[in-house]
Amino acid sequence: MAATWKRKRIDLGPWAFVAPALLWTAAFFVAPFIVMAVVSLWERVGTDLIASWTFANYLKFFERGHFLQAMVNSLEVTAIVTVTSIVLAYPFAWIIAEKVPARWQRLALVLAILPFWTSYVVRSYSWLLVLANNGIINQALLGIGLVDEPLDLANSRTATVIGFVHFFVMLLTLTIYANLVQLSPNYRKAAADLGAGPLRTFWHVVLPLTLPGIMVGAFLTFVLCIGDYITPQVLGGNNELLMPQVIMLQIGRRADFPTASALAILLMIVVTIAYLGFARWIRLERA
Amino acid sequence: MIRKPWRQLPSVLYALAIYGFIFLPVVVLVLFSFQDGRFPIPPLKGLSLRWYEAVWNDGRLMEALANSIAVAVGSSLTAVLLGFLSAYGLARFKLPAKGLQRALLTAPLTVSYLIIGMGLLITFNAVGIPKSLVAAGIGHVVINMPLCFAIIYSQMGDHQANIERAARDLGAREWQVITLVTAPMLWPALFASFFLSMTFSWDEFIISFLLTRFDVTLPVEIWSLLRSGLNPKTNAVGSVVFGISVVLVIVLELVVFRKGRRS
Amino acid sequence: MTDLAVDVRNVTHRYDSFTALDGVSLTVPAGAYTVFLGPSGSGKTTLLSVIGGFLVPQSGEVLINSQDMTDVAPAKRPTTTVFQDYALFPHMTIGANVGFGLRMRGIGSKERSNRAHRMLELVGLGGAEDKKPHELSGGQRQRVALARALAVEPSVLLLDEPLGALDLKLRRQMQAELKAIQREVGTSFIHVTHDQEEAMAIGDTVVVMSQGRIEDMGTPERVYLQPATLFTAGFMGQSSFLKGKVLEKKGSVIDVDTPCGQLRLSAPEKRFEAGEAVVLSIRPEHFVVDRAGDDILPLGSATVEDLTFAGAHHLAVLKHAANDDFRPVAQMPQSGGALVGSTVTLGVRRGDVVVLKDQG
Questions:
Q1: Set of chain A residues whose Cβ sits within 8 Å of the Cβ of C71
Q2: What's one GO BP annotation on this UniProt entry (chain A) (predicted)?
């Protein structure tokens, strides 16, 4: 055994590679998170922050109706967006993967996600243009006489959902397409060979095999959607607020960091629960 | 090949409807950026470049554009460098608690930008670091480094390790292995992570919004432009940003994927 | 005494609970072609890594050209390695790949390209300098890896399953070329493989390994015809085993009691005691069917259970009449031999039987 120890070299070299990234993450991700957790237990009296250990900010969430309502709104909007986006994107991705000739598929896909690259802020603004009272849709509807008065499309939950769905249809088309094309054509051939028609092949073979990919996309949609501030802020109007908007209100208007921190941590807890459920599902699926 | 074309009709119609939905806002945005009038809404009163001229002459917007480019390039370079070094360290050396280190490095991917930005805001406030472009850049490195790390780490397999071993066997020192073999060999991954970081940083709003004050990035400046309501100037600047992003994507496609396909 | 290229002394290495090398000692003469042969997990690749410097063993010493190299980094050793996946630098031209080691040694670019060119000509790839690795076929990449490793003029070249990724035909062709190149440059080659045909075709010396130990070591002919252990007899080619017990020993002649009768055998080198359990190992081509003679030991009769056509001959699986457990595999003529179900008398030439200790 002595020889074993003699030759074990203690080497600090490897740490030199990993340390910068670890320190960066520790200083600008872990530390702020701890600071936020501590601040969430502080109190704000008047305009001063007082260091204390109280769960008052968390209790406020359950006591004040508008905080709880914002969380409910966020969950509702996110659920509607996730389901709608998958329902719209799946057939679209399937058409690109199955019906478009192979040499045009890449182009079809690049086109399908091109508006992805409009600036995030500008994308919501563009929908405002489209949905505004005197915007293109209302003018078209008025023009063909379908309605007498412009519809209140903008500044509503519908507008928020449309703005979100627009973004996530593109994202999900990409992920679902990637799933569909990596599916070996032999599965389908085997199913057809064994007597399954196109519909049954799809239902019993293609859909189950792409389900994990759909779930990954759905989870991504959930996480990105529930944490987004811009889309509801630009399109949603003043009737209802979502969690990120409420959090930003605490920071922006009132500089109430303790409440904002508590709300942010509650939002993270919701996302974590969703993640654990998702991870559990994936594990069960693989087993 | 397709015997009964009419049976494809539902597919074609569906695809066209979705393409229409996806492109509607972009087309409206770009089209009315040429509006020869004060409102970016129908009817189109004629085509003009006056709003692009207005953007060009808007000192704050142009400054914000320059700021955005500086933050994107600076933060992406940092993110790629740190991501590459940590991926190399973790993939090539014996280190304790590797799983934990990997989890820590990729953890920011699962937290929303709003929360990351808020944490940094509160912390910088407490420590006394003023709001600035550098502060926003630090936040951008936090969100982009995990991505760079994950992309580069995934490309450092056993085969690549063997290639580095061969270089060492032939007499290369550690820095020569990294500069002459590892980095050039992983060039597509490094390039892809740099460009991805660039586009994310370029488009990022909430962290920049929270962490900058006087000098701001382009999305933040556009945000303040939105307060003036519907304005063709916003259309023009949005179209410019869209154009730049599309060029970036095409460059990425040509440089990385074409090359990748050849080998 | 010839010079020793490599001298491995009592090397042991464990991965967690798995013992990859268990007190291995061996010497490799300079200028020879040595093959490490064994199944996967036998420790042959670990041993190569220890010689190449990619692994520092937990105990024992490695001497290369009579100098202790146990702790020395790969770059500082007079060895270079040809990797199984070739490990060519994908972003460099073939010329730059071959010249890399020279560049690391500070040799100017002109001299470098001259020597790279000479090395590429040696492996039959003259003029391929400006190509990239992905433009070459598997066999060509293999040659580039060889040229790259030889360019720095190592005194020992290590080849880790170098032909493993090639198809059978190319493999046999590359074997011949490897051997020719080794003769030409005179460098000591150490080659790891699990293919016993490759080992026999290419090696001046074959080192058979199993479970971290060296089972046998010698010329291919000696190892094949007079295997030292049961493992070697089974791994190098095919063998049928017949258990027995030594009854009596007279000089170099022993009488062995087997289920096929009492046999008088010569066992010149090995010492067997009376009463010792032994195993007789017989190659398929050493069985004699339906013939008798002075030098032929009769083994009784057997039934043909199965016949496989092997081109130049048939291989028969037999069932011994007196002993169900003895199912020898014997070579039969290409045509006109016995049919399945027929009974034959079996014999073997006295000198062809190898007597081994029964290790359990």
A1: 7
A2: transmembrane transport
Q: Which of C205, C234, C263 is the last residue of a domain?
A: C234
Q: Nearest residue on chain B to A15, judged by CA atoms?
A: B89
Q: Establish if C105 touches chain B: CB-CB under 8 angstroms.
A: yes
CATH of the domain at C77: 3.40.50.300
Q: Which chains share 3+ C-beta pairs under 8 angstroms with A? A: B, C
ipTM of the complex: 0.88
**C165 and C140 fall within a common domain:** yes
Query: Which residue in B165, B170, B187 is closest to C100 by CB distance?
Result: B170
Number of Cβ pairs closer than 8 Å across B and C?
A: 66
Query: Taking a contact as any Cβ pair under 8 Å apart, which residues of chain A between 194 and 253 contact chain B?
Result: 223-224, 226-230, 234, 244, 247-248, 251
- What SS3 state is found at C297? strand
| Full set of structural domains in chain A with CATH | 64-286 (1.10.3720.10)
pLDDT in tens, chain B (263 residues): 456 667 788 999 999 999 999 999 999 999 999 988 888 887 788 888 999 999 999 999 999 999 999 999 999 999 999 999 999 999 988 888 889 999 999 999 888 899 999 999 999 998 999 999 999 999 999 999 999 999 999 999 888 999 999 999 999 998 999 999 999 999 989 998 998 899 889 889 999 999 999 999 999 999 999 888 888 999 999 999 889 888 877 887 777 666 554 44
Nearest beta carbon to residue C90 from set B173, B176, B263: B263
CATH number of this structure's domain B59-262: 1.10.3720.10
Residue A2 has pLDDT above 60, yes or no: no
Q: Which residue of B has its CA nearest to C51?
A: B169
